[in-house]
Structure formats: structure tokens, C-alpha cells
Amino acid sequence: MTTPAGARPGAVGRVEDTLVVWGEDLLAYRWTPTHPMNPIRLALTIGLARGLGVLDDVATHAPIAADDDLLRTMHRSEYIAAVREAGEAAAGHPVPGWSSAVAERIFGLGTTDNPIFGSMHDAAALIVGGTVAAADAIARGTARRAVNIGGGMHHAFAGRASGFCIYNDCAVAIGRLLDAGFDRIAYIDVDAHHGDGVQRRFAADPRVLTVSVHQHPATLFPGTGYPEEVGDGDAAGTSVNLALPPSTPDRLWLRAFHAVVPSVVADFAPQVIVSQCGVDSHRADPLTDLHLSVDGQRAAMQAMRDLADEHCDGRWLAVGGGGYGVVDVVPRSWTHLLAVALDRDLDPATPTPAAWRESAAQAALTVAADFATDVGVDTMGDGATVDFDRWEGNWGQQAPEGVSAHLQQATDAAIMATRSAVFPLRGLDPGDPRD
């Protein structure tokens, strides 16, 4: 086996200690031919990871669909039935009395974001089954780390589809870990969109810390995730929202992440970290306005792995999520995710295999023009600088080269808003460096 550059032999995430969920049946989660969430991104990710040797000697785990009992730990019975009936209608076999208007108005099924398709229940249940299998492996101790790039459906609610998400695999897996006896689970969501479905599910549960780092909700769906959303009742201080301005680049995003996330995670002292690793934060993503690079996303993944190593004896469950540069961006970023989980970290300067570039070029011809973004794929990075100035003692310092003073100030204001809203509730000092 060829060990990729940057591998960490003997670390907690050694190959035999990391579960990778994958099966081609995950490609069945396909809304419409022109829908932004095209599963070609998953196939290209696995192809790239294999081409680079990231998955050498790794026996992937094929998921099994979650049954209704498992789905009901998050979702209402009538909603599960509505998903099934909508799929049957899309396949040309509507049940008597089925109403498209009811499906859309009550359950969010049949909208532009969530059009109905024939296999929708089975495809969505398979994603849940994969993420729960990852959680079970961690709970049993047969794996310290586990990855399901097909997961991350963080917008789905108990009784309604939302934001390309039918069933919320993140929330079901967290519930499974709670049932297994863990009582301090940290959920870290770095998707450009707020992790609203997971936050709502656990907003009143002090056993779950939800942290979402996202584009400001005044500028992006779903319009939630303000710093003032801190959790309910006895769980006040366990919902943490870091809402960043549009155009935030790597160096400011990483500054903000490290100004908030490590502190609240350390204070919470989790036993497991669950990470939603959506990569629609990339500067070329057609649906969002953040300005990260693949290099910056890789740095975020490494930071979450390091938090799990530091606080959870390495227990880390990572899932995919958003990401609509389906050919150019997502495969490289999630190949980094797999490499990070397996301690086979790839240098961003690593060339991509010629055979994979050819397959990516062919795939680009099959996707809607808006989602075959014009980003170079010759290497595993974008050539970006990910060094950043730490928050402590540096409020108002000169902006990094290429970053406007206004954006620097807006990012620092976002950091301070989150620290001021949450830190006192956790007995932490917001630490305004201006004082």
C-alpha cells in the first residue's frame, strides 16, 4: 500500500479504527436531473479517494436502510407515511386520496427544493441507516472514527422536508448515541447553511451541544442561526451560532471558528463529536456567498478531528452535507475528509490522478451548467493561504492582505456577538479584547 503524504501512522484514527460508510445505492438520492444536489459528487469523491490511495486496505461498510422504528426516533409517523405516499405518486402509483397540495403544504414535499421522486423514502432511509451504522460502531467501540459522506441532511424536521433534506440522519444518529449511554455529545456544523433541524431537535436537551458556523441568516436560507439562539430552558448555552458575513475568506473563517468553537467544546467536555462537513462554503459554490477554499475546508476538518482527539479519545462521526460545486469542489474536499479521518492527510499540492480528471470532465458534461463550477482540479487544493490571526488580544488589528478592513471588522463583530450571547451562559468570559 502507498501511504499518502502527511499520514500519521499509529494515531488514533488508524485504518482499522475508522469506519467508512459507502455503497453505490447512496447514489439513488437523486431529486431531478437538474437539482443542485447531484449524487455524482459522491461517486467522484470515492473515485478520487481510491485513485489517490486514501481508501487502500479500507473495507467500506454498505449501509442498510433505517426501518420505521428508527426513523420515528426523530420523525412523526404521519410524515414518514407522507414520504412513502409521495414517492409512490411520483412512480405513477398514487394511493387513493393522495393530494399533491397537502404533501407540499403540510409536509414540504413537492416544492422546488424538495421535488418528489419514486425512491425517495428508500433513498433517504438508506442515508439514515448509514449514519446510524457509523454511530453504532463508535458506541460499540469497534471504531473511534466513522465517516458517511452521503449523510448530513441537517435541515429535515420532525414532520417536514426542508432544504434538500427528507430525513435528518444527523439527529437520528445523535439520538442513537444518547440511547447508547453517552450523555455529552457535541455537534459541529460547518455547512454554509445553518443546521436548523438538528438545533431544533436538541434545543432543550442539555446533553447535546449544537455549534453551527454558517453564513449570516439575513443573507441565506434557512434564515435562522442568529447568535441569540442559545437553547431553551435548562439547555440555555448549548446552542451556539456563529453567523459570518458573505465573502468571509479562509483566514477570517478560521479565525472565527477558533475564537468560539474550541472554547465551548472544551467547556462542554463531550464524549463524542458529530461533525456535519458541508462544503458549500467554497468561494465557487453557486448557492452561497462564503469564500473558503478547499485548503480552508481541509483545515476545518483537521481542527474538528483534533478536538475529538483532545476531548473524546478520538470518537468522531463525520458526515457530508451541502456542496454544489459537484465536480470541481466537493470531490476534492470530501476526499480530504476521508483522508483526515483515516490519518492519511493529503498535501493540498498533491496532483489529482489523470484518470480521475478525465472522469470529472466527462461528469461535468452531464450536470447543469451552474453546478459544474469553473475551478481547477489539477491538484488537491486551491493554492490558498490558511494561516490566520488568533482572536485573543487582536480585535481591530490590520486586515490580512487581500481582505478589506470592513470585512475584518464585520467578522470580529460576529465573533463578539456569539461569544457575548453564549459564553456567560457557560460561565466563560466573552473576553472582549477592546476592554
Q: End-to-end span in angstroms?
A: 55 Å
> What is the spatial order of strands in the main beta sheet?
1-2-7-6-3-4-5
* Apparent shape: globular
Rounded radius of gyration (Å): 20 Å
- Biggest beta sheet attributes: 7 strands, parallel
Class computed from helices, strands and strand pairing: alpha/beta
Task: Figure out the total of helices.
Answer: 12
Oligomer state equals single chain
Q: State the share of residues found in helices, binned by percent.
A: 25-40%
Hey, roughly how much beta strand do the residues contain? 5-15%
**Average pLDDT reading:** 93
What's the SSE pattern? EHHHHHEHEHEEHEHEHHH
Low-confidence stretches: 1-13
Total E-strand runs: 7
Family: Belongs to the histone deacetylase family.
Pathway: Ketone degradation; acetoin degradation
Protein name: Acetoin utilization protein AcuC
Domain Histone deacetylase: 35-339
Can you describe this structure?
By secondary structure, this protein is an alpha/beta fold. It has twelve helices and seven strands. The chain has a seven-stranded parallel sheet with strand order 1-2-7-6-3-4-5, sandwiched between helices. Helix 9 (294-311) links the parallel strand 6 (272-276) and strand 7 (316-319). Helix 8 (250-268) runs parallel beside helix 9 (294-311) and helix 9 runs parallel beside helix 10 (330-341). The longest helix has 21 residues, at 120-140. The protein is globular, with a radius of gyration of 20 Å. The protein starts with 17 loop residues before the first strand and ends in a 13-residue tail after the last helix. Pfam families: Hist_deacetyl. Residues 35-339 form the Histone deacetylase domain. Pathway: Ketone degradation; acetoin degradation. Belongs to the histone deacetylase family. InterPro entries: AcuC, HDACs, His_deacetylse_dom, His_deacetylse_dom_sf, Ureohydrolase_dom_sf.
